[in-house]
Amino acid sequence: EVTFTITKPAPAAFTITQQxxxxxxxxxxxxxFSVTVAGGTAPYTYAWEGYxxxxxxxxxxxxxxxxxxxxxxxxxxxxxxxxxxxxNIVGSRTATLTVLEGLKCTGTSPNGxxxxxxxxxxxxxxxxxxxxxTYKWVVDGSTKGLDALTATTSQSDLGNSSTVSIMPIAxxxxxxxxxxxxxxxxxxxxxxxxxxxxxxxxxxx
Length: 205
Prior knowledge:
0% of the residues lie in helices and 48% in strands. The chain has strands at 15-18, 23-26, 30-34, 36-38, 45-51, 57-59, 63-67, 77-83, 89-91, 95-100, 104-108, 112-115, 120-127, 134-144, 163-166, 178-187, 193-195, 199-204. The strands form five sheets. Strands 2, 5, 6, 8, 9 and 10 form a six-stranded mixed beta sheet that branches. Strands 12, 14, 16, 17 and 18 form a five-stranded mixed beta sheet that branches. The chain has a three-stranded antiparallel beta sheet with strand order 11-13-15, with no helix packed on it. The chain starts with 14 loop residues before the first strand and ends with a strand. Residues 142-156 have low confidence and may be disordered.
């Protein structure tokens, strides 16, 4: 009598072959992380955790998508725990999500009154987005007596830096006040735009 012994080969080592990678994204973007495993015994189960002060479960597939945010409960790190059908477990590295804050205005000069023959300077500050920035000061809304601007200044383009200087010419009526409203529009390197608050500028003799 001949006896045969069949030895089933052991499954290949259960390992991660592609780790989730660190990412940089703009605020509001959707970001996808992925992990790839080999060996062990399929099917696999995935448990993604995202760090926001705790480690809640955020996904159960080989990929997970999160929204880049800057709020206190936004996800800033992710990791994945994978289990094969035999109960073997491997854990991924922790990947970091760096969020670039959206472009916004952080400060604007107060309203101003400028005496004819003198110069008034106004500034707007911006942060976030992607540098470098470009600036454009424009007239906005109601206007009384655009004579208040210098003769060479156009309504659509008062200046192209974060600071603008205005020198009024004489108002039409002596001692009358003339005014206009202006704002600064900032554009970042990705084409995102943000506006300053509207500034009221008055001119008088």
